[in-house]
Design brief:
With about 100 residues, this protein is an alpha+beta fold. The chain has 3 helices and 4 strands; from the N terminus they run βαββααβ. It has a 4-stranded antiparallel beta sheet with strand order 2-3-1-4.
Length: about 100
C-alpha cells in the first residue's frame, strides 16, 4: 500500500468553507480512481496542526497514474476550491498493517 498525506493549513475563520468545499471535491473527483482504496479528510484536534488529506493507493504505480489523470486535474481545479493557506505533502509506503 502506498499512502499520500497532505497536511493542509487553513485559517480558523475559513475552516467551515474549507471542510465543505474540500469534502465536495473529494466526493466529486476521487470516486472510481483506479488503485485508490481510501480517501479521508481528518480534522486536527490540536492547535498549530493542519487538516490531513489521506489517500491510500494499492501501490506507487497507482499513485503515479493518478497524478497524470483527469481526476487529479479536476481535484485541483475544483470551482469552489477550498481556502488553503499552505500545505505539506508526504508519501509513505506501508510496512505493516493489522
Amino acid at each position: 500500500m502506498f499512502v499520500v498525506i497532505n497536511e493542509l493549513f487553513v485559517a480558523q475563520a475559513n475552516e467551515p468553507v474549507f471542510e465543505r468545499n474540500f469534502a465536495a471535491s473529494m466526493h466529486g473527483t476521487l470516486t472510481g480512481v483506479p488503485g485508490l482504496t481510501a480517501a479521508r479528510l481528518l480534522r486536527p484536534r490540536q492547535d498549530g496542526r493542519g487538516y490531513l488529506s489521506v489517500l491510500e493507493f494499492t501501490d506507487e504505480a497507482a499513485y503515479s497514474a493518478f497524478l497524470e489523470s483527469e481526476a487529479f486535474t479536476a481535484a485541483h481545479h475544483w470551482p469552489d476550491h477550498a481556502p488553503i493557506d499552505s500545505s505539506r505533502l508526504t508519501t509513505y509506503e506501508t510496512v505493516t498493517r493489522v
